[in-house]
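Blinded run. Sample ID left blank on purpose so nobody reads anything into the name before looking at the predicted structure. Input follows.
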Amino acid sequence: MTADNQQVRVWDPLVRIFHWSLVAGFAAAYLSGDDWLRVHVNAGYTVAGLIIFRLIWGFVGTRYARFDDFVRRPAAVVRYLKEIVGLRARRHIGHNPAGGAMVVALLLSLSATALSGMTLYGHAEFLGPLAGLANSLPDSAGGVLKEVHEFLANLTVTLVVLHLAGVLFASIHYRENLVRAMLTGWKSKESN
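Blinded prediction complete.
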């Protein structure tokens, strides 16, 4: 696609691969839970690796992938949300302020989930990169670690649901298919 048909490349291939790999990795980790520990652990490590990649790409990646393009101050996010409620928020080519805040919230939640999982794995199984640290915790910490890890995983699911609701709302409000944009990388320059 070219500028001739009013399209702009927004999401580079690495952002799109990251996004859909993260969806698959988190889904695998969440759905495998306690039943398939090896799948759960490997999916968790995959999520952790993807987060590390995204943090790096957020500083050195393409224009719309960089944090400085979409991370806004809380006041700007609140202002945007008020404009959305009034159905008068302007469209953004990349992430809008609420979408940018959701990216940050998901990265933080996923990071905390992965770290708590590695700590729990180290404590319960004496394996993983945090096993040395986790082994120094008292035996009674296992139950707390499990509860924290499950809470964070469920918090992440809640954020994912809010993210999907935001994508659906923005797709309808701006009359553009944001899922297709995350598959192809292209968005319309102008609002439809």
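Unblinding after everyone has recorded impressions. The longest helix spans residues 141-173.
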